[in-house]
Design brief:
Elements: H1 3-19, H2 23-30, H3 34-48, H4 50-85
Helix pairs in contact: 1-3, 1-4, 2-3, 3-4
Length: about 90
């Protein structure tokens, strides 16, 4: 693996841990695709640092379990804004 990829993988992992970030937020922050973040975290990080990979997976699993709640809140906010406009 090239050095710049290793550096990106570790940087993504620490960002996700520190901010309890989602894959989407990490992708937006680093201006890369969600697919790249996912591949970096699920495949490449395990080879580089298995202990760190487990910690990051814990955060991502938590985010995945809560995503339906965030989606519902976003929908609620959307319709509240629409109601204020009318």
């Amino acid at each position: 693996m090239k050095d710049y990829i290793e550096e990106r993988v570790l940087e993504l992992a620490y960002y996700i841990l520190e901010n309890e970030s989602t894959v989407r937020k990490a992708a937006k922050k680093y201006n890369i695709s969600k697919s790249t973040v996912h591949k970096d975290i699920t495949e490449r990080l395990s080879d580089l640092n298995p202990a760190l990979a487990r910690e990051v997976h814990f955060v991502l699993d938590k985010n995945k379990a809560e995503r339906h709640i965030r989606g519902g809140l976003a929908t609620k906010e959307k319709y509240l804004k629409l109601a204020k406009i009318k």
